[in-house]
Each structure stands twice: as structure tokens, then as C-alpha cells.
Amino acid sequence: MDWAATLGTEAGRYADGEARLPDAADDDQRQRRLTRLGNAAYGAGLCALMLGDGERAREWLARAAARWRESFESAPPGSWGRPIGAIKAQLLAGDRGAAAEAARWTLETGAGEAESPIGRYAACLALLVLRRDREARVHADAIRIHPDFPAPVGDALATIAARTDQVGYVEAIEAVLESFETREEYLEDVPVADTVLVLRALAEQRALTVELDSPLLPERK
User: Fold this and answer.
1) In a domain, 14, yes or no
2) Alpha carbon distance 143, 194 (integer Å)
3) pLDDT tens for residues 10-29?
């Protein structure tokens, strides 16, 4: 994968979309364009991570979070992918303060009361960021058995919230990584196991560690 070239492509998509944004005639069109901007910025940020360019990654990931949050204002009810994306972007950027702020905002939008698995996923991520692990585990336990949610992700979230299940965490996150390595489609066609990176960041805050080696993960320095 030519990460530098792909980063350039994503940056170009972002610039083109930003230039077209003022032309949006209505809220629906504007929120769709903002979402695409967030996707492009996130793709660029992931490429920068793979290149080991932390500063550029932080810039693009923060931009992605901002665009997704902006798009949420006029998005249809239940558009939990945007808050999830904002939290993940700030976690990957390594900005704990911004991640915590995004987590609080996610809960303020009502994620904690959502009944859908994606809404509960948003709530679980937010609560883990805020170190409210007991509450997070309630959502994790609900979504890990839901037929419309990937069980390995739910298992990983539950073991992280439990803090002490090292073996269960390793098994779960390895299964999540395998699901990325065997898929054919990625957001923005950028093959990075971003969910694994997010889960690992949350786990390491709780002294849960694992060594992972994959072309879908950046090298650790």
C-alpha cells in the first residue's frame, strides 16, 4: 500500500468536498457532505498513522471528528456512527482531553438511552473513555450477544470494562483483527484495522496488553 499516495488522494477528496460545501442548499445535503468530509479526513489520518507521522495524523483525525460532529446536528435520528467516529478519531489522535469531551457530548445526545446496538456501542465507547467502566459493561454485555453486532467487538469491550480478563481480551481483539484481515471493504478504501487500534488504546489504559502484528496496523515505535 502506498500510504503517502493514498493520503494525498484523501486530502484531495477533502479539499474538493470543502470547496463544494458552501453550495449545499439544504440541511440534508449539507450533513451528507460534512459526513463525506469527515470520512476523507479520517482516511487521511489513518494513512498518516501508517506512515508514522503523528503530527499530521492528529491534525487530520481532529478534523474528521469536527466534521462528523457538525454533520450530526442535522442528521437523521439514530445516526450514531458520527459520535462513534468522533470518539475513535480523538482516541487515535492520542488527545485524551478531546476524546473525553467527545464522549461527554455523545452521552448528551442520548446514546446512553439508545436501544439499537450501534447506539449502545456509542454509549459503551463514551463510558470507557470516561472511565465509567461498570456502566460501560452493561452496554457491552448487551451488544456482544446481539445478532446485528459483531460479537468479537462486544467481547473486547466487555473484557476491557472488566479490566482483569487478560486472556479474554487477547482472544477477543485477535478475533477483531482477523475480521479486518479477511474483509474486502474498508472505509475510504483505506485498509487499516482502526477498531483494533481504538480497543487497544482503551485496554492499555487499564493495563491490558497484547502484541499484534499485521499489515493493517502501524508499526509501534
Assistant:
1) yes
2) 19
3) 999 999 999 887 666 677 88
Angle between helices 151-162 and 133-143 (to 10 degrees): 160
Identify the residue with better confidence: 203 or 188: 203
Phi, psi dihedrals of residue 182, rounded to the nearest 5° = -105, 0
Number of domains comprising the chain: 1
- Using only C-alpha atoms, the chain has a radius of gyration, in whole angstroms, of 17
Q: Are 57 and 11 in contact (CB under 8 A)?
A: no
C-alpha cell at 111: 446514546
How do residues 31-77 score in pLDDT, each as one tens digit? Answer: 889 999 999 999 999 999 999 999 999 999 999 999 999 999 888 88
Question: 163 lies in a domain?
Answer: yes
Q: Is residue 65 included in any domain, yes or no?
A: yes
Enter the DSSP assignment of 188. Answer: G
The number of beta carbons lying within 10 Å of the beta carbon of residue 144 is 21
